[in-house]
Specification:
Helices cover 70% and strands 0% of the residues. The radius of gyration is 18 Å and the shape is globular. By secondary structure, the protein is an all-alpha fold. It has two domains: 4-98, Rna Polymerase Sigma Factor, Chain: A (Orthogonal Bundle); 120-190, Orthogonal Bundle (Arc Repressor Mutant, subunit A), CATH 1.10.10.10.
Length: 194
C-alpha cells in the first residue's frame, strides 16, 4: 500500500517516467502496480468471466511478465497498451489451460454506452441488472466482447485497442460496430427471457 506522499507522486508522474524510474530503482515498480492493479483486474474479469481469485492469479502473472520484460518496453507505444496486451495474452493463456470459460462472481457494470440513440434497446439496457448484462456479454463471440469491454468499460481509444489486440484501427472499428449490432440482437433475442 502506498503512503499518501507516494500516491501523490504516482499521480504526478507519467507512465514513461515511472518506467524510467523503475529501470533505475526496482522499488519504483510499486507505482506501476498501484496505477494498473484495479484496472487490469476489472479488465481480466470482464473479458474472460473468471472468479476474483483466478483474475488475481492472472494479474500476478501479468505483473511478473511486465516486470521481467520492462527493459523491452518500447516507449514509442503507450505503456497502458503494452501492459493491457500482456494482460490480454495472460487471459488467453489461462483460457487455453482451462480449455473453457469459467463463470465468475465478479461485478460488472451496466453496458449502457453500447447502444446509441433513443430507442427501445437503450431503455432495456439501462434497466438490466448486472448479471443479465454478464449473461448477454457471455453469449458474444470473445473477439466482439473484448473490443466492447476495452472501448466502453476501459474507455480506451481505437489506437490503444489496436495496439493491445495487434490489429488495425480499421479492424477495431469494424469489430466494435459488429459487436454493438450483435449485442443489440442478443437483447432482442434474450431480453424477454432474462
Amino acid at each position: 500500500m502506498l503512503s499518501k506522499k507516494e500516491i501523490k507522486k504516482n499521480i504526478e508522474y507519467t507512465d514513461i517516467e515511472i518506467v524510467e524510474m523503475t529501470l533505475k530503482d526496482l522499488n519504483s515498480y510499486k507505482y506501476i502496480i498501484d496505477r494498473y492493479e484495479s484496472k487490469l483486474l476489472r479488465y481480466i474479469q470482464r473479458v474472460i468471466f473468471v472468479s476474483k481469485e483466478d483474475a488475481e492469479d492472472i494479474l500476478q502473472e501479468v505483473f511478473i511478465k511486465a516486470y521481467r520484460n520492462l527493459n523491452g518496453y518500447d516507449s514509442k507505444y503507450s505503456f497502458s497498451s503494452w501492459i493491457y496486451r500482456i494482460a490480454h495474452n495472460e487471459a488467453i493463456s489461462f483460457l487455453r489451460k482451462k480449455k473453457k470459460v469459467i463463470e465468475g462472481n465478479g461485478d460488472i457494470e451496466i453496458f449502457e454506452r453500447i447502444s446509441s440513440g433513443e430507442d427501445i434497446e437503450d431503455d432495456f439496457i439501462s434497466e438490466l441488472k448486472r448479471k443479465e448484462v454478464r449473461g448477454l456479454l457471455s453469449k458474444l463471440d470473445p473477439k466482439y466482447r473484448e473490443v466492447l469491454i476495452l472501448r466502453y468499460f476501459e474507455d480506451m481509444e481505437y489506437n490503444e485497442i489496436s495496439d493491445i489486440l495487434h490489429t488495425s484501427i480499421g479492424n477495431v472499428s469494424s469489430l466494435i460496430n459488429r459487436g454493438k449490432s450483435k449485442f443489440k440482437m442478443l437483447i432482442e433475442r434474450y431480453g424477454k427471457n432474462i
